[in-house]
User: Fold this.
Amino acid sequence: MSFRTRVFVLAGAIGCTILLHCSEARIAKKGDHVKVHYVIRVPDGQVYDSSKTNEPLGFVVGSEQVLAGIDAAVAGMKEGRQTTIQVPPEKAYGQRQDQLVTTVARSNIPASITLEVGKTLGFTPQGGNRLLFTVLSFNADSVILDGNHPLAGREVAIDLELLEVIPGEEPAD
Assistant:
């Protein structure tokens, strides 16, 4: 854990110098680079995602690089602290959008792909970013795909541990 260290010099009556080191945890603010560990849980308590077995998540506070709920919780948090937050859909993975559910002809999906309800299929349009769809249902003629995030429309609980704060420049608004 990284801490800002303040050194105080105390002069003794006999002319000796004593160095006293005091650590003060940094408080994360907009523009700071931070590293956090997180655990995202769905309402029944099941873990959806966690950084605990991987590298911590690094991001710049206030830069919209992470879920809005995480960004807001970390701003003002002290380095070394842990918290659990309840995050509504609009600050997590968004509300479900019906227009992201689509029906495609089965012939548009390569025959080499075995379809299963709940399976995630990836598609990269020419010159675009990779899109993920969940198979909702299928038959011999068509496949119904859902482009919503699996947690769209759901509140999540997120355990956060702020591991490190590296001062940055506060972005201009």
Remarks:
- The first strand starts at residue 4 and ends at 11.
